[in-house]
Design goal:
Elements: E1 3-6, E2 24-25, E3 31-34, E4 46-51, E5 54-59, H1 60-64, E6 69-76, E7 81-92, H2 93-96, E8 106-111, E9 116-120, E10 130-135, E11 138-139, E12 149-151, E13 164-170
Parallel strand pairs: 2-7, 4-13
Antiparallel strand pairs: 1-3, 4-5, 6-7, 7-10, 8-9, 8-13, 10-11, 10-12
InterPro entries: OxRdtase_Mopterin-bd_dom, OxRdtase_Mopterin-bd_sf
Protein name: Molybdopterin-dependent oxidoreductase
């Protein structure tokens, strides 16, 4: 299965302190995925956090009952597009981690459909990341990762795993799908960390 690449409008370069180097601004929301879009029913969806000796799980109803936050943020894709001022609603990773006893430095996000990506815990905590289930006031569409996706907007958007199913906390960093296929281990758009050696 190859890259699905739809939704690009006209490109325009902008000189802005909010635009990372090598990016262009789009008003569209391009769909970029590897493989088919999983169709995950909210009746079957669950989110879990796995740590040594501990697993926490939430059903869709339990997840929606958690305190939610409204987030306005810019997003930046490794394929050079940026979208300014996007609006999301979701649950902060800080909230989900409140009862987790382990203190480990890394996480692997894993998704329905088998996708994985690695993220340091310091990039998921302190108000930096969420599990988002609404975009622009509407339920998150499947093509954009619904019913819920990870949202880590300060990193390239491949780190914001679509169709997210859980986080596995780890002592060592394990590269995820794109990281083992040539993408940068970390993915900071301001340092253009797109690929190995960037």
């Amino acid at each position: 299965m190859g890259i699905i690449n739809t939704g690009f409008g006209r490109r325009r370069r902008e000189s802005s302190e909010n635009l990372p180097p090598g990016q262009f601004v789009t008003s569209d929301f391009p769909v970029l995925s590897y493989g088919p879009t999983p169709e995950v029913s909210t009746d079957e969806w669950e989110f879990e956090i796995r740590a040594p000796g501990q697993t926490l799980r939430w059903s869709w109803e339990e997840f929606l009952a958690l305190p939610a936050e409204d987030i306005e943020t810019d997003i930046h894709c490794v394929t050079h597009w940026s979208k300014f001022g996007t609006h999301w609603r979701g649950v902060a990773i800080d909230t989900l981690m409140e009862d987790v006893e382990a203190d480990l430095p890394y996480a692997t996000a894993y998704s329905y459909g088998g996708y994985t990506t690695n993220v340091p815990m310091e990039d998921l905590l302190d108000g930096k990341a969420w599990v988002a289930y609404e975009f622009e006031g509407e339920p998150l569409e499947a093509e954009h990762g619904g019913p819920a996706r990870l949202l880590v907007p300060h990193l390239y958007f491949w780190k914001s795993a679509k169709w997210v199913r859980g986080l596995r906390l780890e002592e060592t960093e394990e590269p995820g799908f794109w990281e083992t296929n040539g993408y940068h281990l970390y993915g900071d758009p301001w340092r253009e960390q797109r690929y190995w050696g960037s």
